[in-house]
Every structure is written in C-alpha cells, then in structure tokens.
Design a protein that fits this description.
Alpha-Beta Plaits, 16 strands, binds zinc ion, D-Maltodextrin-Binding Protein, domain 2, alpha+beta, binds phosphoribosyl ATP, 5-stranded mixed β-sheet, 7-stranded mixed β-sheet, 296 residues
C-alpha cells in the first residue's frame, strides 16, 4: 500500500508544535522506542523524526514527501544543494505561524552603522553561508564568510569575525554578547514543504487531503462561534461588528418578540473590544466559543 512520509524535527524549537499540528489534523502514530520512525495508525502517513537540518535533503531526495522546517533552513539547504544540482528546489505549501525569527546581520554595539557596504572586505561569521553570500551580493558587498556550526555570537569577541549573520528572536543573545542587529537578511517562520517530484495519483490525493485538514486546523484556531441576544432592530449594526462573519443565523426568542438570538461563525480574531462594542450596540448574553475543526 502506498504511504506518505512526513519529516519533522525530533527535538528543538519546532518539534512539539509540528507534532501537535499533525495530530490536530487527525493523524495518530504508533510511537516507536527509538523515536525515529513513527508508523501512521489511522492513515497511511508515517513520521520521520530527524534534525531540522536534514529535512530539506530528505525532501529533495524524495525520502519524505512532506516536511515541516524553518524557512531559514529550507532556503539555506536548497541554496547549498544547488552546487550539486542547479535545479534543486522545494515547494512551500503553507506558512505555519510558529517558529518566527529573523536572520540578521549584527555588528559590535559600539560600532556605528551606516550601511551594509561597511562590511566590505571584512569577516562575517554565520551558520547560514549561502543566505549570507546572497544577501551580501545583493548589496554588492564582498566579505570573507566564516562558517560556524554554533556559538556564532561569540565570534566577534573572540576576534574570529567582525560581524555575524545569525537568527534573532528576542535579541537577548545579541545584547548579552554586546552586538546589535543592523540589517535583515531573512524573515522566517516554520513552513510545510513538499518534495519537488510529482507523486502517483493515490499519494497526491492523500497529500491534498492532509493539506486541506492542516489548513482547516489553522483556520479553526482563528475562528470563533459567537452567540448573543440582540434587539431585532439593531441586527444590521450588530452583524457589522462581528469580525469576519458571513450571514449570521437569526433565531426567535420565546416570549420576546423584539429580541432575537444571533449565532455567527467569526473567521477573524474576536477581541474584547468587539464584545464591548456589541454590548454598547444592545447585545446581551454574548458567548464566544472555540471551534475545533473546520471544513470550508
Ligand atoms: O537539533 P536540531 O538541529 O534539530 O535543532 P537546532 O538546534 O538546529 O534548531 P532549534 O531547535 O534551535 O531551532 C529550530 C528552528 O527554530 C530554527 O531553524 C528557526 O527556524 C526557529 N527559531 C525561532 C529559532 C529561534 N527562533 C531562535 N531564537 N532558532 C534559533 N534561535 C536561536 C538564536 O539564534 C539565538 O542564538 O536562539 C537563540 C536565542 O535567541 P534570542 O534572540 O531570543 O536571544
Ligand atoms: Zn539544526
């Protein structure tokens, strides 16, 4: 029987959210002891748990058909493999709204920054040599790229580099090392990627089904079911406040001819401000309920 394989990070910043997304999409796995390969129990979809750096290669080589990895890693590894295969590419299917970070050029905090040109002829330490080379080339800058696999942020204080290109989320690491971010190389988040090859019909259908479910999970996370009571003559005003709601359901309230119950699916975030506005417009008994699954 044809099966699909999905590669996700085994442990690290993306591991838990990647697994949760797949499980919320209805996949369940028999967790094996060695924890590298989990067999899909309810659908023919298995999981490969690996280092995030290996995920792009597993997709490029067709070992896995889907993978969840940071855009930073996916793009870097695709650029790297172009030395061997100039046509190497990965198809991003969906940004996943977690693992947000920025790949930044950073320099010692006591140096003044004018523009990227001042890096010309200097040494830049990074774990992302290909993205860095592309970025510098875009700015017409030639620099000596020092590739390090970790602890990039200490390179300037060790004297092995004049600047770094590294991932930043809160900026704490840069500050602790007396560095400051001065230019953005890439803004990144986790994304779902597929292998470049087309698959047989059965697998393409399975992949499409999974994609629809994952999109449904993402949409449901934002979506709320809102119920409230409202004066019949304020319906237009109230419907206008409900964020992202299409044609709400209106129900009669027993013994209250002037008031109705309004039920609406709000596809955009419902904030406290919306509830306060609804109340001011005459709504009462306002309830906001989470939506677990959606199939548009
Ligand atoms: O073992 P494996 O190779 O699988 O994991 P890893 O150690 O290579 O990666 P991991 O788990 O640290 O990160 C996985 C992915 O998470 C990255 O490729 C990014 O897409 C994303 N991500 C999001 C981050 C960060 N935020 C982040 N802050 N990856 C790394 N960092 C580092 C950053 O470089 C800095 O050194 O975390 C440190 C703290 O950041 P600040 O700015 O909050 O201080
Ligand atoms: Zn890694």
């Amino acid at each position: 029987m044809t099966r699909l394989k999905i590669a996700i990070q085994k442990s690290g910043r993306l591991a838990e959210k990647s697994l949760r997304l797949l499980e919320s999409s209805g996949l369940s796995f028999a967790r094996s002891k060695d924890k590298l390969f989990w067999f899909g129990r309810n659908l023919p979809v298995d999981l490969l748990l690996v280092r995030d750096d290996d995920i792009p290669r597993l997709l490029l080589e067709g070992v896995c058909q889907l993978g969840i990895v940071g855009e930073n890693v996916a793009i870097e590894k695709v650029l790297e493999s172009r030395a061997r295969r100039p046509d190497a590419r990965l198809e991003p299917l969906l940004p996943l709204e977690f693992g947000h970070c920025r790949l930044m050029l950073a320099i010692p905090e006591d140096e003044t920054f004018q523009d990227v040109n001042q890096i010309n002829g200097r040494r830049v330490a990074t774990s992302y040599p290909h993205l860095t080379r592309d970025f510098l080339a875009r700015h017409g800058v030639e620099a000596d790229i020092v590739t390090l696999n970790g602890a990039v942020e200490i390179a300037p204080s060790l004297g092995t580099a004049d600047a770094i290109v590294d991932l930043v989320s809160t900026g704490t690491t840069l500050r602790a090392n007396h560095l400051k971010a001065v230019a953005e190389v890439l803004s990144s988040q986790a994304a779902l990627y597929r292998c470049p090859e087309s698959l047989d019909n059965e697998r393409e259908a399975l992949l499409a089904k999974l994609l629809t479910r994952i999109q449904g999970v993402q949409q449901a996370a934002e979506t709320k079911y809102v119920m409230l009571h409202a004066p019949r003559d304020r319906l237009a005003r109230i419907s206008a406040i409900l964020p992202g709601a299409e044609s709400p359901t209106i129900l009669n309230l027993e013994g209250q001819p002037d008031r109705v119950a309004v039920h609406a699916v709000c596809t955009e975030q419902v904030f406290w401000e919306h509830l306060e506005e609804l109340k001011a417009a005459g709504a009462s008994a306002v309830l906001v309920l989470p939506v677990e699954k959606m199939l548009a």
